[in-house]
Amino acid sequence: MSSYTPQTDLPLERSRLVGMISGGVSYGTYLLLTVQALIALMQRPRHGQKIANNRRTLICYTLITFSLGTISFAGNTKYTEMIWIDLRDAPGGPVALIENVMHYRINFMAICCGYITELLMQALLLYRCFVIWNWERYVTIPMVAIYIGMIVAIIVLVQAGTGALFYNIDTTLAYLVLQVAHTILYTILVAKRLLSIRGQMRQALGEYDSSTYDTIIFMVVESAMAYSLFIIIYIVGFAIHSDPLSTLCFLSINQVRALRNCSSSYVWRGGGQLREIGRPESLQQRLQL
Which of 31, 168, 278, 280 is the most exposed place for a label (fewest CB within 10 A)? Predict the structure, then answer.
């Protein structure tokens, strides 16, 4: 029996399919964590603890980011169907459709929703970082500068993407580098501040149980390392013009950043219940005890 090898970029097409499958798996995990987070936020605290003032805001934020992530994933799924079914006879075939992802409205919408979700998630991380640092200028200024740089990179990327191949847009590299810089700087600042607070609590109370701070630091560092490693792989793939690797990372990045956001915003407590750790007054009150 003779075998037939089609004249096309099979690795690129396979990466699109594998990327959507892995994106579906990570989206399912994101859905589970979102439901658990909403349940935890809507429950009344145990042991007569005070209800967080910003609980409603966090619920709305969680719903908005999840909705945007869902729209992005649904758009990518529909476009994947269009590549091999609806537009299979388009000029250039599936490869051209994969490379020209910004030229179709449904996928353009999916990409834009993904960028908006990223900015919202980074904004929450910025807020948490600023709160525990008591809005110190030497912390807020560089972090805000990187955040503005990400916004500018996204605007340039979207404008350039409407008239060029997605994998040929150099602005993507700048945007990914800014993401890595933002994640690493955020992790260092938060971990340093929490370690400092933990040390102060131990000095004030000799037998103080610092397990809460240890858990938060571990979760922040762990999620940042996993996300940064994923972005670095994406950067390498984009820099060496490995379209299959770039496609694989591109289709999973929205769910990966959403999982990072969930894991860095909430930590598991006893009995399997999630506890929100970003209340503005929580750390300051502990220091004043």
Answer: 168
Cβ neighbours of residue 9 closer than 8 Å, sequence gap 6 or more: 95, 243
Report which of 146, 23, 118 is spatially closest to residue 75, judged by C-alpha positions.
23
| Contact residues for 188 (Cβ-Cβ < 8 A; gap 6+) | none
69, 254 contact by CB (below 8 A): yes
Cβ atoms < 10 Å from Cβ of 100? 17
Spatial distance between the Cα atoms of 52 and 57, rounded to a whole number of angstroms: 10
Q: List b or e across 243-272, with b for residues whose CB sees 16 or more CB atoms inside 10 angstroms.
A: bbbbbbbbbbbbbbbbbbbbbbbbbeeeee
Taking the C-alpha atoms of residue 268 and residue 96, their distance in angstroms, rounded to an integer, is: 45
Helix axis angle for 171-204 and 211-239, nearest 10°, is: 170
Nearest to 94 by CA among 3, 10, 161: 10
Rg (CA), the chain: 21
% helix / strand / coil in the chain, to the nearest 5?
80, 0, 20
Please give the chain's pLDDT, 289 residues, in tens.
455 555 677 888 888 888 888 888 888 888 888 888 888 778 766 655 555 567 788 888 889 999 999 999 999 999 999 988 888 788 888 888 887 777 888 888 998 898 898 899 889 888 888 888 888 898 999 999 999 999 998 888 877 766 555 666 677 888 888 988 888 898 899 888 888 877 777 777 666 666 777 777 777 787 778 888 888 888 888 888 787 888 888 777 777 777 776 665 554 443 333 344 434 444 445 444 4
Rounded to 5°, the CA angle 95-68-170 comes to 45
